[in-house]
Amino acid sequence: MPMKRSGYFPLAAVWMSLGTFAGAHSVRAMQAAPRMVLLNMSFYGRGANSIEPGDSGLAGQSGSLLRRELSRYQGLDLVDSSTVAAVVAREERNGDPCNTIACAVDVARQLNAKWVVTSKMSKASDLIWSMFGQLIEVSTGRILTDQEVELKGVSKVIAPQGAESLARRIAKAAGLGSGSSAQDSASAPTAAQLDVTQVRARLTASTEDKPADFSGMDLSRLDLHGVDFRRASLIKTRLASANLAGANLFTCDLTDAVLTGADLTGANLDGTILRRANFRDAKLAHASLFATIVEEADLSGADLSDTRIIGYLKKAKLTNAHLQGANIGADPGNQSMGVMRAAFVGADLSGADFSGANLFKVDFSYANLAGANLSHTNITNADLISTDFTGADLTGADLSKSDITGAIFTRARGVRQIKGLDQTRGRDKATFDEHME
What secondary structure, in 3-state letters, does 311-380 show? Predict the structure, then answer.
């Protein structure tokens, strides 16, 4: 009987083909799965604004979540934590902590592992955390991948998402397969089988330890208004033209999701991950995007009027977006936990309408605001370093105490009506027309 290229041999088949050598060969087959050692996750809080009770414990909980996620990958022998702890304890008998790559590799060699994983969790503020993970090849001591997952939101909620993301990246670097069992994959309904009732049933069956997973599914054009998707995985999910008005998407992961033309009026997207998501022409009026990661997302032509936005929008695309009356100003009430503000560093905001918006302390550094409407906006205390305002309307905008070093105001309208221009920093390094309008 031909051998399978991966997985374990059925015991009966081995007996039939190998006779009396069945036991020895099946043992070798079971040992074929590569071993991985996962060391305890450490906590780093030196750069934090404040350390609260339970912060270090969160790293331990996150380490357990990382172990759970890695254990789901097929073809991997993950050494149990008690066995690892016993070897680490022997290494630390002289009082030196096992916190170096050399020690990690030594522990893994004693356990005949192919890889060892080290990880840590760091805190910048109560709403800003990072999770780090290294996959090390034991035979050479070489770091195969060094990953960082940025987390923004309520720590106990975002930790499971961070652990899942970190596990996925480590597994990919190790060349492991899917984290779902073959049985789960076979029984999972396809995207075409899901209707609104089935979506709600999945959400009802979800738990805190196992949130609903709609990754890669097609939920386009479904009426999902007011539905509670809290903490669900919507990675690469298609929600084009779906009705999500008033929906709760708190701390969901919408990385690479497609929501073109979707209606998210009044939706809660606080703490969500929207990296590279496509929101072209979507409706997000009166929605909330607090502590949201919108990096490289496409919101061209989207309606974000009267929306609350505090998040990370680096390299996001908002060409011709509607942001009239949007509240994008930093929240003074959260400054003790770090500067919670909107960062549009390197974003394309050309042609966007910000008229009447609150842009207090916004970071528009290196952003393209050519042709944008910024009339009567509050842009005080902002970072406008090398921002391109070519042809923009700045009539009545307030730039008091903002840094405009390297900013370009060529052909901008209403420059003479800008408030607080004499109070800006770096004005001598900004570019203006010789005869300002």
Answer: EECCCCECCCCECCCCECCCCHHHHHHCCCCCECCCCECCCCECCCCECCCCECCCCECCCCECCCCECC
